[in-house]
Design brief:
Layout: H1 2-36, H2 44-66, H3 78-109, H4 112-122, H5 125-152, H6 154-162
Length: 169
Amino acid sequence: MKKVYLFVKKELLEMLPPTIFFMVVFCVIVLTRDLMSPESGTGALTYAAAIIGALIVGKSVLIADAIPVWHHFDNKSRVALIVGRTIAYAIVALLFQFLEEVIPLVRSEGSFGAGLDKLAEEVHWARFWGTHIQLLSFLALYNMLAVIVEEMGRERFTRLLFGKSGATG
């Protein structure tokens, strides 16, 4: 039983940084979308969905990092690692964002083709791409921070970030 507890604890602690990061990111994106079009009436459910999305992304990042394909970038420069991970995460995010838009339309229209036609008519493409550009920027930031933490070590990075200004270590 102790092994299970230690495993769950380890997984939750590893999931915490990306989850917190993306929870803030998704809430900022929701707020930005609401400010761009106040008539959309963003409510508590939208923020709850953003938080649930952050939990999913937090675990997804850990799963994605465990996939052997990612290790292709291990012997490359740090910039290649950041760019590669950012592009891969952005493609997955674009797919999820597309599905988030198309699934309700497919349900209401009765078929995938009709749902796609409705999507082409109704979606605010500037808002769709604006959201994806925001997400791409945050993904790049996340990947940069992840590489820096990996190189420096979590303790040193935490000391640098939360320690007193001017303190060396």
